[in-house]
Amino acid sequence: MRVRTKSNKVFSIFIIILTLGVFGCQNSSKKEQNEPEKLPNIVIIYMDDLGYGDVGAYGATEIHTPNMDKLANGGVRFTTGYASSATCSPSRYALLTGQYPWRNENAKILPGTAPLLIGTEQLTIPKMLKEKGYYTGVVGKWHLGLGSGNVDWNETIAPGPNQVGFDYSYIMAATQDRVPTVYIKDGNVVGLEQDDPIQVNYQKNFEGEPTGKDNPELLKMKWHHGHNNSIVNGIPRIGFMKGGEKAKWIDEDMADTFLEKAKQYVQQHKDGPFFLYYALQQPHVPRTPNERFVGLSGMGPRGDAIVEADWCIGEFIQTLQSEGILDNTLIIFSSDNGPVLNDGYYDDAVEKLGDHTPWGPLRGGKYSLFEAGTRVPFVVYWNGKVTPGVSDAMVSQIDIFSSLAELVGSDNKTEDSKNLLDVFMGKSEKGREELVLEATSRTALRKGNWVMIPPYEGPAKNNSVNIELGNSSEFQLYDLSSDIGEQKNQAKENPEKLQEMVEIFKQIRGADFENIQQLELK
């Protein structure tokens, strides 16, 4: 009896332990199932005037971009990825709002004194992400206007990035070639001295201030067209500026400055989730690479600026890695529009180009309705989550809004942005069916493999920048599957396809598409 009793006790204890273990595992499993999946950090790395053929992963052989290539080869590299527009301000507007820029008549290349282009009531990517608990920041080029049209640069400037969803902003107001040539942090000019106030005017110079046009002896960079107003650091700019001497940036240090702010942002918010819009200024003019990069490309300042930007991207990615958050960070890499060589300064971009083709196999460039104006490098990278590969799916930067909304579980939508999250993640090849492309208020339609460009008045080529604009007195129709360089106009020989494209275009764009503004380089 004792032996049996002892065995029963041992057996009972075993059953209790086993039962507790099973229930413990079940409870643990239930707990894990109930825990929400950690939201990823999101970074958009946005280049300025980087062409389809400027990146090694996109076919460049004469310039080395190992860090851009790392993103492209480690993520989904889109061969048919588009900016919304062939110029900067409209593309940035579309990126952040998920809306076609031609819906906003003010979405054009903005002067440094333009009012804020995005309405403070509008949906934006940072607003949408803030609702989901993200800390949001922008570092780099803004060029979406500031204030309400009459900015006092010596006071807090609003509305601006902080009023359209960004918790933190460290920006330049417009472009590197436009005044004011100062950094602005959360609406305040960095390093401004009260006894040296800033004055800015885009119509009239300030008495006694030298200009590039009148004082060529003061220049270290010669202007070619349009850039002959106030001189800062020996570089003539667009617009006139007086004062703020201690606040003015040093052009050659700009890349380092923005990189450092981007790295600090990551380090301070690594516990996330965070969103960072890292808008590099390269290779926009004036191209002023730091002395560490001068001569490395063999192509002059433009090539050197691309090499510098590639290094910045590598340093930024290394920061994500060293902080232990690279694997939980979704990175989208792209450019605001296609390439341009001479965009206002003599800097050997044309003379030292050699065999490099910034536009790749495409026709046109910045300002153009041809493919090279809007088809740009477009990469989605998420280490361990995005399956690396090459996708021919048609995607647009406008689609980033809805795709990110799907990723974070937001119900926010816009009428133009498509949810292409599965495409971005490499799980689907079903991209957009059609897309309206824009260049300086002119629009065209891409649908399937076809692109249709309506007739537009104006020169076929802008001689100052030496780029074909896409203007013609006749309709243009190209089959990109067999003619990626848009050399054979099929409008006359394929009238049925042309009519189909025109009808779809009018349904989306409206009948007033002929109301355009001519390109004006300033």
The residue ranges in which pLDDT falls below 50 over 5 or more consecutive positions are 1-35
Instruction: Please work out how many helical segments DSSP would assign.
Output: 9
The main sheet comes to: 10 strands, mixed
What is the strand arrangement across the widest sheet? 7-6-5-4-12-1-13-14-2-15
Mean of residue pLDDT values? 93
Helix content: 10-25%
Q: How many individual β-strands?
A: 22
Task: For this entry, give a set of tags.
alpha/beta, 9 helices, 16% strand, globular
Can you give a write-up of this model?
There is one protein chain. This protein is of the alpha/beta class and 522 residues long. The protein is 24% helix and 16% strand. The chain has nine helices and 22 strands. It has a ten-stranded mixed sheet with strand order 7-6-5-4-12-1-13-14-2-15. A hairpin with a 2-residue loop joins strand 18 and strand 19 (450-453). Helix 5 packs parallel to helix 6 (301-322). It is globular, with a radius of gyration of 26 Å. The model is unreliable at 1-35 (pLDDT under 50).
Task: Please summarize what this structure is.
The protein has helices at 2-34, 66-74, 88-97, 125-130, 254-268, 301-322, 400-408, 421-424, 495-509; strands at residues 41-47, 76-78, 81-82, 135-141, 168-172, 183-185, 188-189, 199-201, 231-232, 235-236, 240-242, 274-279, 329-335, 378-381, 389-391, 395-396, 434-439, 442-447, 450-453, 461-462, 467-468, 476-479. With 522 residues, the protein is an alpha/beta fold. It has a ten-stranded mixed β-sheet.
